Amino acid sequence: xxxxxxxxxxxxxxxxxxxxxxxxxxxxxxxxxxxxxxxxxxxxxxxxxxxxxxxxxxxxxxxxxxxxxxxxxxxxxxxxxxxxxxxxxxxxxxxxxxxxxxxxxxxxxxxxxxxxxxxxxxxxxxxxxxxxxxxxxxxxxxxxxxxxxxxxxxxxxxxxxxxxxxxxxxxxxxxxxxxxxxxxxxxxxxxxxxxxxxxxxxxxxxxxxxxxxxxxxxxxxxxxxxxxxxxxxxxxxxxxxxxxxxxxxxxxxxxxxxxxxxxxxxxxxxxxxxxxxxxxxxxxxxxxxxxxxxxxxxxxxxxxxxxxxxxxxxxxxxxxxxxxxxxxxxxxxxxxxxxxxxxxxxxxxxxxxxxxxxxxxxxxxxxxxxxxxxxxxxxxxxxxxxxxxxxxxxxxxxxxxxxxxxxxxxxxxxxxxxxxxxxxxxxxxxxxxxxxxxxxxxxxxxxxxxxxxxxxxxxxxxxxxxxxxxxxxxxxxxxxxxxxxxxxxxxxxxxxxxxxxxxxxxxxxxxxxxxxxxxxxxxxxxxxxxxxxxxxxxxxxxxxxxxxxxxxxxxxxxxxxxxxxxxxxxxxxxxxxxxxxxxxxxxxxxxxxxxxxxxxxxxxxxxxxxxxxxxxxxxxxxxxxxxxxxxxxxxxxxxxxxxxxxxxxxxxxxxxxxxxxxxxxxxxxxxxxxxxxxxxxxxxxxxxxxxxxxxxxxxxxxxxxxxxxxxxxxxxxxxxxxxxxxxxxxxxxxxxxxxxxxxxxxxxxxxxxxxxxxxxxxxxxxxxxxxxxxxxxxxxxxxxxxxxxxxxxxxxxxxxxxxxxxxxxxxxxxxxxxxxxxxxxxxxxxxxxxxxxxxxxxxxxxxxxxxxxxxxxxxxxxxxxxxxxxxxxxxxxxxxxxxxxxxxxxxxxxxxxxxxxxxxxxxxxxxxxxxxxxxxxxxxxxxxxxxxxxxxxxxxxxxxxxx
Length: 947
Hints:
- The protein is an alpha+beta fold.
- The chain folds into 4 domains: 12-48 and 258-438 and 728-946, Multidrug efflux transporter AcrB transmembrane domain (Multidrug efflux transporter AcrB transmembrane fold, Up-down Bundle), CATH 1.20.1640.10; 81-249, no CATH class; 441-485, no CATH class; 579-720, no CATH class.
- Strands 7-10-1-11 form a 4-stranded antiparallel β-sheet, sandwiched between helices. Strands 13-14-12-15 form a 4-stranded antiparallel β-sheet, sandwiched between helices. The chain has a 3-stranded antiparallel β-sheet with strand order 4-5-6, with helices on one face.
- Strand 5 and strand 6 (173-176) form a beta hairpin.
- Helix 11 (260-276) runs antiparallel to helix 29 and helix 14 (349-378) packs antiparallel against helix 16 (407-420).
- The longest helix is centred in the C-terminal third of the chain and has 32 residues, at 722-753.
- The chain is elongated, with a radius of gyration of 36 Å.
- The relative contact order is 0.11.
- Mean pLDDT is 80; it is low at 437-453, 486-502 and 891-947.
- Keywords: Cell membrane, Glycoprotein, Membrane, Transmembrane, Transmembrane helix.
- It comes from Acrobeloides nanus.
- The chain crosses the membrane at residues 27-49, 257-277, 289-310, 317-340, 360-380, 392-416, 442-464, 528-546, 735-753, 760-781, 787-805, 826-856, 862-887.
- InterPro entries: Patched_domain-protein, PTHD_SSD, SSD.
- Its main location: membrane.
């Protein structure tokens, strides 16, 4: 009978990787040089390096309404220039009322300095804010007018000055204050302002060329420096922020993390080389491990260069990609090293390389494929930052996988050539003589120094140890008695360990523990205990998911020492809670001179003023109100709309501030009463009682609904922070869809490599359980659902499958009919390597803990959760579940002719000795053309190697 589809796929995969190994062994120099040249060529793409850093553009979903609304607002002002906005907030140093005489004087001094005396120089010319604010200057005048009137008691007593809130009336002019003063206390009777604890000055401007853009950037930095220089002022504390400063702080977070890549690299080098070192100076693999760690670095150079060739931009969130690639890439190094040690040392070098690639190729394919798919799916998300992050790491995973199969195989080939020539593993130019003891001098010195202690202290220790040994107490836990072992002649062949193993004293401890653990897994008590633990775990995780908050704020992108952080917190805790203003753009006003158009527009305005949460008409800024009054004056009482007065109206100093509310076409159109005179315009009105993002989103939805009722005007609502509110609309659904797609892909991978319903169903359930925990437990770690955590959870899905696939693959591949022995075999094969893989992953990102930023800590916490939950499910949950379920698989003896060597998914400790030939190994040897004597020679050779 022919092979089933799964076995055919398995055999084809094995043969394909074997042919690749043979090809590389035949052409090592060609493969090495071509790989290095390709890496260098792709790396040259760095000449196209472009950095982009715009929080609004990159963390706002492309399909969110706020993105379109911002584009409309930006397009409106682009006709006049690009908008510039800096906020400077003032708070009393003692946290009290800022409307006390000394504090008012200081606040006015600060306002005047920022307005006129804060000078920046550009191209030999000096600029102050008053030099470039233009029609926007009056936006900062409200604070000056209010403080001046409040300080002058005689003005406060006049009937034509009413310092009410949210709008004050000064000599007949209404000034909206809700955008400038906060935490206000009013007189119960007169509703006059008596106290306020926070004042914010809004500095607006519009720049129309690159020169003014540079001037304004310099000015916002000067304002920040001034605010920081007054930190010790006894009266007033200053805080500053702007969109440009926010973007620069986000960039600083990435810059702080970049130097730690070298630290992570060194840590991984030490770990890899240390765990690859052996007592045998020939068969140790320190340089192979070193170049193995270089493989992820090469993949980073190639992937980043490729994307820079393709004009991709570098974002701060991409900073964590090198750490993640180091974490996942080094695992593959251990897989190949392990497969090499398990290979038959009597085979020719070319055959050993082919066997190594055939054994390890499928293993690293599983881990690379799961990581690749989980991040590849993220490329199709709607948030540009996540899309860019996933693109960079997906391409890096692909190159890392490719270079491990090519470059690192060549490294292993040259290492094997060195080994054949008996050259020193550490200093390859030195030939090692048989039984040479390189460290004999050091050992002799150590013996001399320790001689006295050995005579006295250690003799007593050995005496106590002898007493323990007589009583057959455990050497590591002396309170536990070790059970009697059966005579060696009665043991099964696979239970006999190589006698020359220097770590053989660990074998009884490990195997006793595994035996006890397998017995525990088989017991009913383990199932009851596991069920209880999982119910509690799922309950906590589910509650966390239900309680997790959705949304990204700019403070999550800052370092903890950011000078902008305090004002951002004030915005979140004070300013946002007290309300704000939103703009309504009328992009197709039509013919305003028609009798029914102006009344309809005013009716629309009234609907917004009466909408839930709106402040009302006192907060509205509508250019039509003063213009119609002006038209009435010009027409001696008639207020019918006319275009011809618009140019002169906006040129009058008193009305000049309204000019930026209207986009005018050719002034001649206005003179000719052509409706094309007015392209578009906007008005603003205030809102309040929206302290949470959910409440702000509800208001946004009401405003958007109003605009849809008047489609002919093509109206658009814009609110400065709507991008944060809209995340409540986009992120939950986007995350749900992405996670479901990723889990389906992971399930397909498990089906391909462990095609048995009793391994696939528990495996997929375990992956779901791990990710349930990752999402749910993040809530208890004060992490919200936002684009940063969303990209991290994509990583979690890929990483979590690794742990499940390892134990599932070994349990499935074991050629043992008894479930107890099958589980024992799987645990002895993979338990320690899984732990080693987890440690490697954590070490790669652990250095980032010194960066105190939410964006960085999210990745660290997700990695910690994935590793912990992955090991819990892989080593505790699945073993108990697997032995509780029936399992049936056709043994190798039923298909001996077609048997292929099972792939080993193992990241083995370098000093872990190979197991003696089991039935699996025997059939493997016979099928590959190696007779029993070769297998015995292999065991003997491995024994000599370890010795």
